[in-house]
Q: What sequence folds into this?
């Protein structure tokens, strides 16, 4: 039985024989390949299959003669209807929601009038994993997403969270496919960093100082440091041994006698230095000049979790050409909103020899590609979102994937927003002030009714690495705004001119030294380049219409919570 | 000129007109698409192209009439030969190694006897980024990999590091492709975790306690806490205001008078409580009962960087079916070897309803897939490795992708190694002791001359989550051993039986409570499952034949070093 574990046969010879003689691998079939779109029921009927999954609902019929199980294996939203006869297995052990089964049988055409195209008549039950209904935390009643956040280890068994997991997987693969097709190379930028991309931003610190201090504490308890009198005694011994040597020398003693005496002196000195070292051990976090001594930390300096891989990925754009990074990023902000996470994933492409125009081009193509991909690969899950969370989710994907994005300068955006009379904004619109989310959404949802790219922002509200335009007032930055979430992408052409960059760093009040390496990219064979960042979870919110970012990442981290 | 930045036209209307009227996008061509394998020289000759890249070598010819530049853009190992006439651009500005250029011209057939199939005659030089040869750290002389580690921001411009970057990118894409083709979903397991996969292992701590303490220090300096006498004065005020209220009440004063007096009392109390709060502020790391008070840390408890996503990805295997994670993992070990990094990437698939046999099947198929992928997609870079680092690198890929892996039990492996007479091992071979690297390499390189999977290890030397075999002595673990690096993959069938897992955790001396969620996966609808982990950098070492792991990750992190 393929479900069996491989046990150790008594001898080595038998072990090899056992493994090579195992019958041909028998695979379990994914339910998606049985009842997914594109499979014709007629091809399936009569086929023997083995499936495994979890019971969504189970009910006995025919006075206990057989049971109907709705079985889901996570490969798709739909369940497979499974029929088990009471002669095959004790039915009561199969019925509870959450029970796992591995079963074999034949696919049959259900009776007329039944919505399923095919059902499975089971003749072998290979494995069962029970789920006690009195303690199983996910009964079949509909549970709120908020409730499910307390069960991140079990919630992927629910329709919503499993649909999001599949959408997430598809968007990740679409991302790699898009960039590969466009000649971008994937680069792993560092997670632990000693650079700070924005020159600000709350960062998590990475350290071993606490565990080192704990170890030292334990060590000092088990083996207490010497007392001052022990040190004094050791010093006295060194003095005595020194005097012995001097004495022997003055007596012109034999070489052997003198070197024996010198050896004793050396040992006394070593012993003293060891005692002094231990005497100087201080419990707790190492300090120097009243501050934490980070030279004693793992990396010999303060280290943090990355807030963006952009600066580092630029090193590879300036060598390999088009590149992108796709990895976790971090913010230690005490935000309790539905739009912020302490740990989230970001995609950051960087286009060598590319200007702002190229940047906008790839940003638009990428977002369109993702939307088309979901329509092509995830329609069933998207229909579930439309039915349960956001009526317009599919229409939005269609709109974004087909309509050209509107492009307007920041200056134009401000003019348009200032002229708005049918809505009162909470935040003032004024040239030189960043657009608020309400403004961004008004531009894309009300004025243009499609995605909008706003470009050329005032330099004061944007980061130091963005390229200064010839007007000396704006930088070559751009934001992609989409309905439902507002800003989806932020990007810019990077300042590739050495002197201009030095000035921007200085103007931002930042020290130059940490950016030496970044400046060297401009000093040696500098090239125009541009790039952008897309928050992966924000893209999923946009696609699915869900409201809380904690529901679109498998293991959400936010102030006070880091389950598992 | 496409190289120009987009500047802000004076009015909003003009801005839109400007952008929509831009001529059709002109792309730079990758050098790989001009001189890569599979392009026929005849199709290229006569084509106009624009290319950008960095000068590897430049030399003037014909008494300064023209220059030959070897141009590389990172898209492939090979350089494009570029010819610039002195009438087109001042040649001396183009010649130095490291100079960047963006040029346009026509592809020509070179004279007979020249090795290049095609060369570029430049008629426009669009952009130049100089590189001063007196300060550029990467001259054309061959540099050691060790030297290059001090220039992680520039080293991807060298042949070796750019070849590795391309191999890395290809292996990452091959990984996603393999698992997708086999029905695995990609899951992002958490980077910040409150679980410890191995129940041991040195972990980095993630904290905001230092920055919080710094903020508090600054705040206390700017706004010193109240003195004891201030507190006393505030207490006295509360007392007085209380007496006032009592006095007015005893006088049966008017409601207005009394409530005015109560208001004053309330204010005095508030003021006191604020003072007391500030009085109790202690600078430094928050302490409780003589220990660090982690309830005041960002997540309300101690948090760490993950050492493995396995335990967490199991939650999704027990819901979605086959899944895998591919992300960064961390070890805070003070290892200064050529095989260890503090930050590295790992691929961890998990097979639902899969036993050890399935685990070995997917491990073998995956490694074979990666090897074939490199032969199909990276031959030029692999040939470079063969020429410069490891003569057998390509042969090794061919061997591994074609030969079935040998499978032997741990017991058999020990028997075979004990019988070895032609080699003296440094480490003793004995049943119950883990195999050392020298044993692993001997098995794969000498005895079997192909990859070997060793399975069923003594339970004492393996982790608690590995499934206990019926012999009660071994667990269903397996390691894949390959020539050159030894262990490439470690995996196991997971213990899916609740009681057996409780016993294994307890036997390992671990507390049960942190594993509550992990145990619940076994309590509710448990299924057999298995998985493995492949260290991504180790795979690259295996493929390329390089010796030091610090050279196969873009930004290596190890004790004392975390550049950028």
A:
């Amino acid at each position: 039985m393929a479900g069996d574990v491989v046990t150790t046969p008594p001898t080595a010879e038998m072990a090899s024989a056992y493994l090579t003689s195992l019958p041909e691998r028998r695979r379990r079939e994914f339910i998606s390949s049985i009842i997914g779109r594109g499979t014709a029921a007629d091809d399936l009927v009569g086929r023997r299959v083995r499936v495994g999954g979890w019971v969504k609902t189970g009910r006995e019929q025919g006075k206990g003669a057989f049971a109907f199980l709705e079985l889901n294996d996570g490969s798709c939203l739909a369940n497979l209807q499974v029929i088990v006869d009471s002669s095959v297995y004790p039915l009561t052990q199969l019925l509870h929601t959450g029970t796992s089964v591995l079963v074999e049988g034949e696919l049959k055409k259900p009776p007329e009038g039944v919505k399923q195209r095919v059902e499975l008549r089971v003749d072998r039950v290979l494995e069962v994993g029970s789920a006690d209904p009195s303690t199983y935390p996910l009964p079949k009643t509909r549970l709120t997403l908020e409730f499910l956040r307390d069960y991140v280890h079990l919630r992927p068994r629910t329709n919503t969270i499993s649909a999001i997991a599949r959408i997430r997987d598809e968007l990740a693969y679409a991302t790699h496919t898009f960039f590969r097709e466009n000649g971008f190379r994937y680069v792993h930028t560092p997670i632990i960093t000693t650079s700070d991309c924005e020159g600000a931003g709350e960062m998590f610190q990475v350290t071993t100082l606490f565990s080192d201090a704990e170890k030292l504490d334990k060590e000092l308890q088990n083996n207490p440091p010497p007392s001052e009198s022990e040190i004094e005694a050791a010093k006295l011994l060194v003095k005595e041994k020194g005097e012995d040597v001097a004495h022997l020398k003055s007596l012109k003693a034999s070489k052997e006698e003198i070197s024996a005496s010198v050896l004793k002196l050396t040992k006394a000195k070593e012993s003293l230095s060891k005692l002094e070292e231990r005497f100087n051990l201080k419990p707790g976090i190492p300090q120097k000049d009243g501050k934490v001594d980070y030279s004693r930390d793992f990396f010999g300096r303060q280290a943090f979790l990355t807030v963006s891989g952009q600066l580092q990925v630029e090193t590879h754009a300036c060598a390999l050409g088009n590149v992108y990074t796709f990895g976790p990023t971090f913010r230690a902000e005490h935000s309790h909103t539905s739009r912020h996470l302490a740990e989230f994933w970001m995609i950051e492409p960087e286009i060598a020899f590319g200007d702002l125009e190229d940047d906008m081009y790839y940003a638009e193509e990428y977002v369109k590609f993702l939307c088309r991909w979901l329509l092509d690969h995830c329609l069933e899950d998207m229909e579930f979102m439309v039915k349960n969370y956001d009526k317009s989710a599919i229409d939005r994907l269609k709109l974004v994937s087909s309509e050209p994005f509107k492009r307007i300068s920041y200056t134009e955006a401000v003019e348009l927003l200032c002229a708005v009379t049918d809505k009162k904004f909470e935040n003032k619109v004024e040239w030189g002030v960043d657009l608020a989310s309400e403004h961004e959404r008004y531009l894309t949802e009300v004025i243009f009714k499609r995605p909008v790219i706003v470009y050329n922002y005032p330099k004061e509200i944007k980061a130091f690495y963005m390229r200064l335009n010839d007007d000396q007032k704006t930088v070559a930055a751009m934001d992609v705004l989409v309905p439902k979430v507002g800003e989806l992408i932020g990007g810019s052409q990077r300042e590739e001119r050495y002197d201009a960059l030095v000035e921007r760093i200085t103007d931002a009040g930042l020290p130059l030294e940490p950016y030496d390496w970044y400046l060297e990219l401009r000093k040696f064979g500098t090239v125009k380049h541009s790039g952008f960042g897309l928050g992966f979870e924000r893209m999923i919110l946009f696609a699915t219409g869900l409201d809380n970012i904690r529901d679109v990442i498998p293991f959400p981290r936010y102030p006070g919570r880091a389950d598992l």
Q: What stands out?
A: The two ends of chain B are 34 Å apart (CA to CA).
